[in-house]
């Protein structure tokens, strides 16, 4: 494995995008550009057919990984694109939607926009509840016009996850769309489109699935109704009609797909499938760092520490200064609000946001020690 950290830099910003990518991924991108350079689905010549095969291979790999048939895999540019598609495609004026208090702006902003423009209303439920407490919370917020719950499977602001199985069951019982933002969980912990009650799962290709940036997917369950289009355009089929084709995936895939990225994503999915419990590995690393930092004075930790992310502030040093200090030590982390204002309100880090260390599959225990040493030095400059 070619390791980026061999150059001396330590990448710990995997919640933003994973890095490095497996060599199979980068090789597949280049191979696709060299040998499958036609437009997939737009011609019958050899280069177009090879490109169509590349795209279909990835649909199959993703379908197997997320338990859904290949034609119900819709390629998107990222998670945000997928979430906008399903939220705006399913909701109608007058509808009510529940989002969680760990929602990323990729959920909060489309819903907020619909609330401003289209008479959609929303409420925020408390993430992390289970059993009777969860049911009581959701029932209390339910209205006759409630149509959808958008579940943020795992927060990106701190280690914290929500109960997908229970919310899926609730949605099934009450006939609601259940949309899953699996931006932080896909590739790390199981999330399947055939889980009870789930309508669609939106995932990035470029985080836990180890694909290139500019890739993402919507995985529609077999029972999900067709949702309205966010964009219309060429689909390579039914060209004489003014309507988008009525079937997935073409219905939602207007315009040329990012075939080289999809080629890389396919290898990323295969890599993750072969590796097994990657979530367990990153969870061990973040738990270790959490324990070390828990014992340090002058450190405030947010959320939990067990799902790959450690979110913290150093007393007397702003998150931006701390991240800058780590950067000068060759350690890449993110600081600020991580596009998740609701989550910072929940975790108590609203004032300045936090510093976020997010582990990836190629990080090791040695990396944890290096961060601890650097944070100890950063604490000294604050005294
Ligand atoms: N949802 C969550 C929980 C995220 O963490 C992110 C990105 O970090 C997104 C949505 C948006 O993902 P993307 O950058 O793939 O659009």
Can you tell me about this structure?
There is one protein chain. The protein is an alpha/beta fold and 383 residues long. The protein is 39% helix and 15% strand. It contains 11 helices and 13 strands. The chain has helices at 23-35, 46-66, 79-90, 105-117, 131-141, 164-174, 259-275, 278-294, 319-328, 341-347, 365-382; strands spanning 10-11, 73-76, 96-100, 121-125, 146-152, 177-181, 200-204, 216-220, 299-302, 309-314, 331-332, 334-336, 354-358. Helix 6 (164-174) links the parallel strand 5 (146-152) and strand 6 (177-181). It is globular, with a radius of gyration of 21 Å. Residues 1-5 have low confidence and may be disordered. The site of pyridoxal-5'-phosphate has 14 residues, from helix 3.
- Helix percent band: 25-40%
Q: Estimate the global geometry from the Cα principal axes.
A: globular
Largest sheet: 7 strands, mixed
Rounded to the nearest angstrom, the distance between the terminal CA atoms is 41 Å
Secondary structural class: alpha/beta
Task: Please work out how many helical segments DSSP would assign.
Answer: 11
Query: Unreliable runs, pLDDT <50, ≥5 residues?
Result: 1-5
The strands making up the biggest β-sheet line up spatially as: 2-8-7-6-5-3-4
Order of helices and strands: EHHEHEHEHEHEEEHHEEHEEHEH
């Amino acid at each position: 494995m070619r390791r980026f950290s061999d150059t001396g830099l330590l990448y710990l910003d995997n919640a933003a995008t994973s890095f490095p990518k497996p060599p199979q991924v980068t090789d597949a991108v280049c191979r696709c550009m060299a040998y499958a350079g036609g437009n997939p689905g737009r011609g019958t010549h050899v280069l177009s057919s090879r490109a169509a095969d590349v795209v279909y291979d990835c649909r199959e790999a993703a379908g197997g990984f997320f338990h859904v048939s290949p034609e119900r895999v819709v390629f998107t540019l990222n998670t945000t694109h997928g979430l906008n598609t399903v939220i705006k495609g399913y909701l109608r004026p007058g509808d009510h939607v529940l989002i969680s208090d760990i929602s990323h702006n990729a959920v909060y902003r489309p819903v907020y926009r619909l609330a401003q423009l289209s008479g959609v209303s929303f409420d925020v439920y408390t993430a992390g509840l289970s059993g009777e407490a969860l049911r009581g919370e959701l029932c209390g917020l339910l209205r006759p016009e409630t149509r959808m719950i958008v579940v943020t499977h795992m927060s990106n602001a701190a280690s914290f996850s929500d109960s997908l199985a229970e919310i899926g069951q609730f949605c099934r019982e009450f006939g609601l769309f259940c949309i899953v933002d699996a931006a932080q969980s896909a590739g790390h912990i199981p999330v399947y489109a055939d889980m009870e009650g789930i309508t669609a799962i939106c995932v990035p290709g470029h985080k836990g699935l180890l694909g290139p940036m500019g890739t993402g997917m919507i995985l529609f369950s077999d029972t999900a109704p067709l949702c309205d289009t966010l964009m219309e355009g060429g689909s390579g089929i039914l060209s004489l009609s003014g309507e988008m084709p009525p079937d997935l995936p073409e219905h939602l895939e207007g315009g040329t797909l990012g075939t080289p990225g999809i080629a890389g994503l396919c290898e990323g999915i295969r890599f993750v499938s072969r590796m097994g419990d990657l979530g367990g590995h990153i969870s061990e690393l973040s738990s270790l760092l959490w324990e070390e930092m828990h014992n340090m004075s002058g450190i405030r930790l947010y959320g939990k520490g067990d799902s790959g992310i450690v979110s913290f502030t150093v007393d007397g040093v702003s998150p931006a200064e701390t991240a800058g200090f780590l950067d000068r030590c060759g350690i890449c982390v993110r600081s600020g609000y991580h596009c998740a204002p609701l989550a910072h309100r929940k975790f108590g880090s609203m004032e300045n946001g936090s510093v976020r260390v997010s582990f990836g599959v190629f990080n090791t225990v040695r990396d944890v020690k290096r961060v601890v040493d650097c944070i100890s030095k950063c604490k000294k400059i604050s005294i």
